[in-house]
Amino acid sequence: MSKYARALYAYVTLTLILASTLGGLLIALPAALVVEAQTTTQTVLLSSNNLNPLKVLEVRVRGDFGDGPLTMRVVDADTKQPIELTWADGTRETYFLAYKVAANLYVAYLLGPSANYPRNPYPPLSPDTRPGAFARVVLEDEDRGKSYSVELVGTDYKDTFIYDTVKMTLTLSPKEFAYRREEATIKLTISDMDLNLDPTSVETVDPAGINVTLIVYKAVGGEISRFITLSDLAIEDVRETGVNTGVFITKTNISRLNTLVAPDRVSDGDRVVIVLLATSDVQGWDDYLVPDQRGSDYAKAVYRPPTVRVTFTSQSVVIEVTSPDDNVDPDTADTLDPGAQVYLALFDEYVVFYVTTTISTDLFRETGRNTGVFRYVIPVSWGNQASVSQANVVLQTRCRGPFYFYVRYYVTTRPPGYNIDARGTGVYTPAVASLEVLKATPRAIIFNVVDRDLNNRADAIEYLVPSFNVEGRMDITLSKPGDIAVARLVLLDTRGNVVGAPLGVDARDIVSFVETDMNSEVFELKIDATRLGLTPGAQYILRYYDYTGELDTVFKDYVFTVSEISMTLDRTTIPVNRDGVYIYIRYVNDLYNSDPTRRDSVIVSIRITAADGTPIYDGSTALTETGINTGVFTRWWLAPASVFATPRIVDAKIEVWDPNYQDIKAEGKFKAHDASIEVSATVVKWGDTVTIKVKDPDANSITGDIDYIDVTIMYGNIVLAVVQLEETAPNSAEFVGNVTVSWDNPAFINIPPTAVLTVRYLDRTPIMSPTSPTWTEVPYVATFRIASTDGVLTVKTAVEGYLGVLEELRLDNITVVDPDMNYYKLRADELRGKLAIAIEGVPQTPTYNLVETEADSGKFVLPSEVSISLARALRDAGVITGTETPRELAQKLAAYVGKKVAISYIDDYSAAGTRNIVTQVLVIRAWSAEITTDKVAVNLGEWLTITIKNYEIAGTTISAYRQVIVKSTSYPAGLMFYAEEVSPGVFQLKIQVVKVEDWIPGAKQIPAKLGDVITIEYVDPVAADGSANVLVTKTVNVGVYVEMPGKAERVKTYDVVTGAEVKPRVGKEVFLTVTIKNTDIVERAMTVIVVVRDPNGVAVARFAASVTLAAGASTDISFGWIPIVSGNHTVEVYIVKSMMDRTPVGEPATFTVSVE
Fold it and tell me: What one-character DSSP code corresponds to residue 533?
């Protein structure tokens, strides 16, 4: 089990009776303590894994052990005996007590011999009320280094500690520290559980109790050592980071280090090493030197030059100094070096001005803790004279940019390595103001002015104050608050004359210049034109001078036209429509734009006068402003149907005018028009879509929207449907609609092919004389015919032109393509009784149905549940009963071999529109069945593919005609299988040839053994000669024999006495051994002939031997041989049938044998 968790995975029943005398009191634990591991994890956990004379350990027991207290003891790991403990009341015992302080939690405290009681023990624990929970170990210095376990008596739950000090660790940060500023700090992080004397509170350690070895390794060579205490080094308390963490933090700084190493100083590249050793004053014993328990770390003094970055905008100058060496305390936001200076300079491109100042480094604040980036922001504004201070940067107007802001952060009076000199420059390039006219009317002139130079505050909507340069003239200066002129505008006519302004009027009553939104950089320049008497339709010039970043002599002209007061209609020729016509009236007059915060309206008069001068209509209507502050007023006005009641409206005139300005008016004339109609096709087939197009300007009742009209489709005098046509686009006067010719539309049901349909449009307002008393309606028509086509019959059989005597035709074996039978576009059609089968010599002719392959295809096939064959036709004709067995059926149908059969499609509507019959004549035929296999011989375990070609039964569903019997010598009774049709009249069956003992009955297998013959039997229902039920067979051998089974694998030489492999020597006899293998699947006899040739190729020995080898077996054949010459000899091995029959049964092989 781990140190920090003890998990119990079984039920443990403990019978525990502990009796101990404590002041005459008998303590008894529960007699039956049952622990259930599935619900509670029980552990003993110490607050630390070591104890020293000044330290306290908190003991926690987790689990459900009742109300407690629990009996605990401290056991010596070596002797296995409990040690003595002194309770808070002075009682000496070999156990202590853990009290329940919360659900499933019991707590006690172990104290070192000289430790103080914990300051914040778990309530209600106290040395006064629960002395047994505060036990001091009775140990001596001689016990240092021993291990002990704290155990829950009667269980195996325990945790261990060592009575000794533990190693301290020290971490310095940052690892690279700045030495330039003496207030720069170095953090010391000390990890040491020895100093964590009280696990219930945050500890503060006396730094005088920790010895310090300070070593400074100089970058220029040499070292400085000081032996001090931490109180000499630390500048703040040594304080624990939290309760029972054992981690303590303090700081030192460069000033303290310099004092300690005086008269020297810490400088660039020096390495500072700090070694800490805790003494007995703070932990009861000194840390060991061997093994080394001291904590040590080092840090390096560095010099990192600062950098300066300046961001210069119209709103501010942002100075950022990146200076890691000024980040003197990583835990706080710092300021720049107080002994340095920051010099600022502001000047322009042409040095018209050059102003400077020096500001305090204390203004620069670190952007956050430990960032090392220091920022100061100075607002920017415009003024008549440039200036710079810590509070404001003033850019000079009427001065050409760009402008430069120079910053220097420096100190140069210190020793080398301690100085600073960092510089940076920001550039602000003023924008060129751009103006865009938004509106120019007799009422108001509005420009958008885009100029970021004027946007000096992001948190306010800025504005300029106008003032006249010349009284009574539109020559105006625009100024920032404080009378800082930043722009000038002059309004001129096209002759260059300054437009006049009323005398005695404040310029602010005529001109306003305000930012559109905070920080938008866009300003609205608005001029009240009603004060200036501008001429509608005339051109004017706005001359604009930009003083922000430019000289006061530079300007840019913007030409604009004051809009005229005008009234228009959407069309001057207005159609005549008896349902009424919409007329769009548009009136541009900004003088009626009385309130720029809402939409205004204006009343106009309307009069319609007949061609003979008599009135038809007299009235008025209200026009509404198109938007806020547009000065444009519109309305769609409906000329009522009553004015179109008679042709009197033809050539009538309409007048619209402003009663306040009677010379402002718009006029139009009403005209009647003829119409036209056309269709996209004059001949269509079922399922086609016909597009109908009508042109009628009079139906274009509104130019701003889509109009609709209706047409009628007729068959003779019968109205089939009314179709709505839609205008192709607003104001096009062309109307289009589609109609699909299909029985899906109930209007076309029972309309036959060849029918001629009429599309009719009624023009209710044709061209007529205005003196006619009533309208005469004129119809326009277009026609189209439903096409009829010749049906095409296709019959596909296994062999073209023939019908197998038992062949069955299905689905698209018979196909009819006849588009004029495609009555429905959205669903498949059915042709009932349109397919006829006539058999030579049979008077009856049965008929069958056809179904469309899919909606709108025009292609028809047999229904999926229907098949057509000679047998089906004879049964439907009553010639056979349909109850015959397959053998009887074959005998009856054999009589029809050679006869003809006619398959006909009855086409009710041919291309000529007449009834027609399309026929295909086939000859009934039989073929003699043929059996083939994919192997001439098959091995055990292999699959055998059997193919039967018999075109006369193509497509058959009679399983008896696909029945195959497979036999073997070992299983002569045979097994029945059924072949599957893989192509018309071609059937296949795959079976596996297996050993008899491996055969699985019911599987596609035939049991056999090597040497068996597989026999395949198939009964041909009708042979080519007309005979019925003819048996056809095919045989296949089991076992594929290898033509060259013999193989010489290797040649070796052996000692004739010991049998060990040796290298042959001249004059010494050896066994020349050849290894032969039979690679066949059956036992084979063969003869081996060996010829040995010396290095000159002369045959020096010949041997021969005959062997019989089982399938796959090998054997060694040895011959005695005494070499007579040294060198490489060649051994030739030949394998033949026998000495008498030298036919090779193995490939010749050659080996080399070296003789010494």
Answer: T
